[in-house]
Amino acid sequence: MSIGLVIRLLVLALLVGFLVSPESFAFVFEPLTKNNQPVIYNQGSLLDLTLNHLLIVAIATALATTVAVGLAILVTRPFGAEFLPLSRSLANVGQTFPPVAVLALAVPMLGFGTAPTLVALFLYGLLPIFENTLTGLTGLPPTVTEAARGMGMTGGQRLVRVELPLALPVILAGVRLSTVISLATATIGSTVAARTLGEVIIAGLLSSNTAFVLQGGLIVGALAVLIYDGLSAIERALTRRTGQGARANA
Amino acid sequence: MTTADTTSQSRAAWPAFDKLGVLIALIAAAAVFLPFAVFRANRIVLGEGLLIPSALSSPSAVLLGLVLLIGVATMLLRVNPLAKLGVGFLVLATLFVLIGQSATFLTPPDNTFARVSPGAGFWLLTFAFALLVTDALTRLKFGPWQRITILALVGVAMAALLWSGAWNDLSILKEFANRAPAFWAEARTHLLLAFGSVAIAILAGVPLGILLYRVKPLRAAVLNTLNIVQTIPSIALFGLLIAPLAWVAANVPGASAIGISGIGIAPAMVALFAYSLLPIVSNTVVGLVNVPEAANDAARGMGMTNRQRLFSVELPLAFPVILTGIRIVLVQNIGLATIAALIGGGGFGVFVFQGIGQTAMDLVLLGAVPTVALAFAAAVVLDAFVEMVSTRERAQ
Predict the structure, then answer these.
(1) Which chain A residues in 33-62 lie under 8 Å from chain B, judged by CB atoms?
(2) How far apart are CA B23 and CA B129, in angstroms?
(3) What pTM was estimated for this model as a whole?
(4) Which residue of B has its CA nearest to A88?
(5) How far is CA B167 from CA B31, B43, B159, in A?
(6) Chain A closest-CA separation from residue B361 CA (Å)
(7) Closest chain A residue to B327 measured between Cα atoms?
(8) What order of strands is seen across the sheet that includes strand B115-118?
(9) At what angle do helices A46-76 and A2-20 cross, to 10 degrees?
């Protein structure tokens, strides 16, 4: 546990160090270049690209979380129950759409740049969150919902005070999955001219400069691992809390 | 269970109208006021959107109007899902035939530059009625064979439509006609990449999963490593494999003879394989761990050796979970194989990226539509297989 924490802090320190001063790491990437190619990405600041990448992912995930949780709540209420089977199959079908295809098909409607990437990430991020929220809301122990009903809680009260808090860890797991997928998928956004770390990788592919490819890949990989771990930790803390909460209620 | 209960409750409140139908009908109504087809003087200029009355000859427009009315009426009323399914397919078939007709109608004779492609209205109508069909199919709860049969029938109908030449004036098929040999070559590459990488991943991943199940201390370390591989963005992984494979091709005798090289299909194959390992390995481990202890005890009591137990008890019981892993990976790799085009690996991605480069969206569609169709078909077929093996197991 503590060794894992040390490694993670080390990765974070290296990542921040590299982003702030990439030139001081040039010796690591030097052997990968040929014919005096530039060692460190030189068509823009890596820090800016990283922040922009994170911003796009954050906006898309926040929107996806709001919409997906809202929809999942709607279809698990009596009013929206008619939509439940369809929304389940749609979530299944949606997952078969490759991100590149979604991205490419969004271009004619939205033009090149950040907009199609945001839309693709949003649509792609919806599914894991929606599915997990459904699982969380429909998989609650019947005794708990019965007890809440027995206490005379209205539907709204049950949702806010019992169902959502208990489903929160599962919902967060969906958000985590969706974030990590988005972090990787955002790189593909650079094929339609979004300013993400994919730019670095694609520049490397086009000039066959492995150093660029590795830089872009490592930054995204490190971000994904760190964010994944961070969200997992929050989830564990919440599970512990709701576990205690459920026992206290019972 | 609970779903059925709540549905009957809400049914009492909404006696005549289908709520979902109202939503889809609104989408369809909006779609009628959007361009049904887009006409462009050549393949890359901005197009002119045409509403249904101007996009179709008058008899066809009237026919479409009638069919749409029947469709909307069926979705609004609470009728038997089977009827909804039939009408849904009827409307979709009409839309698909008429969009081809619209292209023929709008293209001036002897003009090879003009392009007609489906407009937003067509797509939205297709989406609305596809929702109706999906909802009906979900409610009908067909068995695995019935689902595969429906998929096959739809496939045959689409093939017949394409083969009949009814769509030949549509822009996407003009793009196809210009590069038919390339299309089939890339299709073969795409299939080889997607299915080949999954096959190799099964051959390597299932034994690895069995090993990890038996040797517990290795489990966390290997699964974590595979997890990290998954976080590397696909385009970076494809790119990073170029250098090592180029080295192998140059330095290992015979490697280049069997087709290994820095760019092209080899790094794509390795990258797809790397992405496939985690779901297959972890599902194998989970499937084996979840084999009931009672089954294992019974097998031991019968005097089975470890090897016999593995092949006749544990693996058969874990098979549905392993197959689910294979389903995830296959659908994912069919999509990911499009990225191989960025490193010269071929596949349908070639058309997608060429299309993006030339801002020729019909070319993008030529790459994207077969990819989506392939992924969708693979998902339906493998889901059906998973269901078949799990129900067979429960019956035993």
Answers:
(1) none
(2) 11
(3) 0.84
(4) B138
(5) 21, 17, 11
(6) 7
(7) A96
(8) B48-50, B37-40, B115-118
(9) 130
**Dihedral pair phi/psi, residue B117, rounded to 5°:** -130, 160
Helix, strand, coil percentages for chain A (3-state, nearest 5): 85, 0, 15
Residue carrying the six token digits 């809400």: B10
β-pairing verdict for B48-50 and B37-40: antiparallel
* Tens digit of each residue's pLDDT, chain B (396 residues): 444 444 444 444 445 677 888 888 999 999 889 988 888 888 777 788 888 888 888 888 899 999 999 999 888 887 888 988 999 999 999 999 999 888 888 888 877 788 888 888 999 999 999 989 988 888 888 889 999 999 999 999 999 999 998 888 888 888 898 889 999 999 999 999 999 999 999 999 999 999 999 888 888 888 888 888 877 778 778 777 777 777 777 777 777 777 666 667 888 898 899 889 989 999 999 999 988 888 888 888 888 888 888 888 888 889 999 999 999 899 989 988 998 888 888 899 999 988 888 878 888 889 999 999 999 999 999 999 998 888 776 665
- Which residues have a Cβ under 8 Å from the Cβ of B326 and sit 6 or more positions away? B198, B202, B280, B283, B382
B234 touches chain A (CB under 8 A): yes
Residue B250 CB neighbour total at 10 angstroms: 12
User: Best mutation site among A86, A88, A192, A199 for testing chain B: the one with the most B CBs within 10 Å?
Assistant: A86
DSSP state of B47: P
- In 3D space, the residue among B201, B348, B353 whose CA is nearest the CA of residue B271 turns out to be B201
Find out whether B263 and B342 touch, Cβ atoms under 8 Å. Answer: no
Chain A interface mutation, best of B43, B223, B224, B231, highest count of A Cβ atoms under 10 Å: B231
Tally of CA atoms within 13 A in the half-sphere of A237 that contains its CB: 6
